[in-house]
Write a structure and sequence with these properties.
alpha+beta, six-stranded antiparallel beta sheet, two-stranded antiparallel sheet, 34% strand
Length: 129
């Protein structure tokens, strides 16, 4: 069993592919990689934090929606979902984020599990809208 305390963009893309997604690797303006892939018809970003020498110390799943979700719904989801953040930006857009720190070591299976939590978090948002 392989334990990771950092992850490369290629490794993360492989994890997403193994979960049935079609990840697209891009580069952000600051040179860090960004993975884009569709979850229930919505483009998710995977951001790489603490990025150095081609590897990240944590990853973040993130999606922004143009439509507004009532704050009561977002607050209810935040109470229900332990690892996910649902919030409204000042422009009214809804944002959903899920962080996956790797410090201390995690298995690839854990990263796959977090990807499944992410998909569930997006499903839950649309069940409650």
């Amino acid at each position: 069993m392989t334990v990771l305390d950092t992850i490369s963009a290629d490794e993360m893309a492989d994890v997403l592919s193994s979960c049935g997604f079609s990840p697209e690797l891009r580069t952000a303006g600051d040179g860090t990689p960004v993975i884009l892939y569709e979850v229930l018809g919505h483009t998710t970003q995977v951001l790489f934090n603490g990025y150095s020498d081609g590897r990240a110390r944590s990853i973040q799943f993130r999606v922004r929606f143009a439509d507004t979700v009532p704050l009561e719904v977002l607050n209810s989801l935040n109470e229900e979902k332990l690892y996910v953040k649902y919030y409204a930006q000042s422009d009214g857009r809804t944002v959903v984020e899920l962080d996956c720190p790797l410090r201390g070591g995690v298995t690839l299976g854990h990263v796959q599990y977090v990807a499944s939590l992410w998909e569930n978090a997006i499903e839950k948002l649309f069940e409650t809208k």
